[in-house]
Amino acid sequence: MKDNQPLLESYKLEDLTLNNRVVMAPMTRNRADNSESVPTDLHVEYYKQRSGAGLIITEGSQISERAVGYINTPGIYTDAQAEAWKKVTNAVHEEGGKIFIQLWHCGRMSHPKFHDGEKPLAPSAVNPNAQSFTKDGFEDTVEPKAMSLVEIKETVQEFKKAAQKAKDAGFDGVEIHSSNGYLIHQFFNKNSNKRTDEYGGSIQNRARFFFEVIDAINEVWEETKIGVRLNPSLNEVFGIIATEESIPTFDYIIEKLNAYNLAYLHLSEPFTDVSEIDYLVSEIAKHYRPIYKGTLMINAGFDQEKGNNVIKEGNADLVSFAKLFISNPDLPNRFEKNADLAKWDEDTFYTPGSKGYTDYPKLKEETVNK
Ligand SMILES: Cc1cc2nc3c(=O)[nH]c(=O)nc-3n(C[C@H](O)[C@H](O)[C@H](O)COP(=O)(O)O)c2cc1C
């Protein structure tokens, strides 16, 4: 074990060897060129700076025009977008890094301003009562349009087409964003999915769309190149209100994922305090480690010590870090040197330009260990 830090050990994702188990979690940074939703040269620099991660998972990237929900987010459905992403994947690969793209459909977490005045798509016409970040600032979300069966099938195909573009762009794999209150999560949850057809009602029906998406992507990518992200104890964030069926729903989904030989299952510990809610699970890695047989990646609120411990305890194989990677582009190197970590600036998470994006320095050679 490298200096008693399992985070720094390499890890085999089938034929892909990760240099360490410190994964960069997906983060929307709103720096894409909005005219064509393409990543820019700034993205190339940003991801290259972070290529010391065992694996980079890109920011959520919309799979179609209909999938968008925020300004200045990149897409992965046009040739121009694939070409622009290719510069990113080349830069990361030149540095010896690995990179997956996160495939994103916002569903109802969007606004008519993104869709020529049309309502955003969702499983059911239930307003998340949240806010959408449009070109005019934060605006209240609206009642979305309940997807027709045709629209559901079309959306599954959009995931497949985006997966193909991701391949063209030279990614090592894709992560399905089935988490954090976006379209796929909206299908899972009883409060956002009131359908009475085969996509609603029972747990199996609410999970159906997700498995159709995996199967469609699997026509393009081997299972071992597909990761999925789930947030089983999400409550009162991103418009999702958990129910007594939330954990049984995720138990069913995760059990069923064992039939696939996926790259990984990416889980989040609760984003809010759920200790008082007896039907939610407050220790996600511990709960799902015995259920899931494949590679388990855990996220949310981890630091160097907690990350090493969760692997040592056998509750996860990989740990993803989000905010720490914003301000510490060379995070694994800092862990190795037990160096101090820089604090991130929340004010520049979603603002344009290089400030707070590509201007966080790497560790200086002379920095003294703490
Ligand atoms: C600026 C920012 C943007 C984010 N964007 C995404 C995203 O595009 N997709 C996603 O799945 N999660 C996103 N997240 C959630 C993070 O991946 C992660 O779950 C969260 O920050 C908790 O991890 P941390 O404690 O290591 O920061 C975002 C978080 C932040 C701070």
Relevant terms:
370 residues, 16% strand, alpha/beta, eight-stranded parallel beta barrel, 14 strands, TIM Barrel, 28% helix, two-stranded antiparallel sheet, binds flavin mononucleotide
What does this structure look like?
This protein has 370 residues and is an alpha/beta fold. It is built from ten helices and 14 strands. It has helices at 41-49, 79-94, 149-168, 183-188, 203-217, 246-257, 284-288, 304-312, 323-327, 331-336, and strands at 11-13, 16-18, 22-24, 55-62, 99-104, 121-122, 131-134, 137-140, 145-146, 173-177, 226-230, 264-268, 296-299, 318-321. The chain has a single domain, classed as TIM Barrel. The strands form four sheets. Strands 3-4-5-10-11-12-13-14 form an eight-stranded parallel barrel. Flavin mononucleotide is lined by residues 25-28, 59-60, 102, 177, 179-180, 229, 268, 299-302, 321-324, 349.
What is the terminal separation in angstroms?
21 Å
Shape: globular
Order of helices and strands: EEEHEHEEEEEHEHHEHEHEHEHH
Strand content: 15-25%
SS-based structural class? alpha/beta
CATH class: Alpha Beta
Which small-molecule ligands are present, each listed once? Answer: flavin mononucleotide
Task: State the CATH superfamily name.
Answer: Aldolase class I
CATH architectural group? Alpha-Beta Barrel
Largest β sheet strand count, sense and barrel closure = 8 strands, parallel, barrel
